[in-house]
Amino acid sequence: MMRNQYVLWPDMVLFYGAMPKEIARHHHPVIQLIIGTEKPFLKKAPDGSWQSCRSLLVAPNVTHECDAAEQKIFSLSIDPESELGAFLIQNDLADRDQLQFTETALDYFDFERVEELIRSEAYHELYHYCLAFFQPDGVPPVHAEKEERIETVKHYIKEHLDQRITSSTLCELVFLSESRLLHLFKQEMGLPIRNYILWVRLTKALEMILAGESLTRAAHDAGFFDSSHMSRTFVRQLGINPAEIVKNSKFIQVSVLEQA
Description:
CATH class of the largest domain: Mainly Beta
Mean pLDDT: 87
Distance between the termini: 26 Å
């Protein structure tokens, strides 16, 4: 039996597995797609009643509540400031804060294939498979050649996570104006620098936690104020408390990817 999977790309997080309990009323800063892979799940309507649905796309910071306890779900959390996130806000979520896809649209997903891609660690292919669901006629461009100045910035960020990282420091590092650096970074990476720094902090902490380090040590080395700050950020960005990862580490597999 496949363990619950978390796959983390810089602009998107995939959870694939079974939730142990219903998802309480909450909101988060990401765009979220939830699909019941084998059967519909329940979502709470504005009047308080529960409605059955197979999928739900939710805009950032929109309060929602779902019950998919003990059933397998496919859940994507997408950075709204990424290229894909901006596309969804301008198109699918342009005039609404929630959307249910038709069964015809959901026929795109072959979850046996998704599981095979996860098992074989074909994460690049899995990323583009997810992307193509939203943009079948043209996905955002992939930059094959690495921009040396952006690589320098990324390396600096990773080596100085336990410090305060400012845009002025990064600009001095690569001799670029702030506006030029911010533009070039988003063009190359698909998301803003501040979002990338947060992603690196989260993944650094996650790797340390999975390696057996304490939450306090992981929070410090990854640049969070303390373990409480780290825990709040985990819940807000990933939908999971790091203490739950520690508690259920043998049931969860986490894969972190630097690039799509």
